[in-house]
Amino acid sequence: MEVSFPKETTLESHGNHEFGVMHVEMSIMGITVQQKYYATIYKGYALAFVSSFVDEEEKAELNSILESLTFEN
User: Fold this and answer.
1) Which of 15, 37, 43, 53 could link 69 by a cystine bridge, Cβ 3.0 to 4.6 Å?
2) Euclidean distance between CA atoms 35 and 69, whole angstroms
3) How confident is the model over 16-27, as a mean pLDDT?
4) Using a CB cutoff of 8 Å and minimum separation of 24, what contacts does 58-62 make?
């Protein structure tokens, strides 16, 4: 398995909260799997998500799920 980090860490806003995002690509049995690791601090706790996808359709579906996030203050 080959793992690479194709981009610098970025920031994304979901649910009116900012997440640091690490971009990862890995090749497994000839298939390139992309992952995005999301992390933030919320009410003193670390909150993290990982999304894994192989094409733009899967990426878009996962992004729409993240857009539905809401946080209580």
Assistant:
1) 15
2) 19
3) 95
4) 59/34
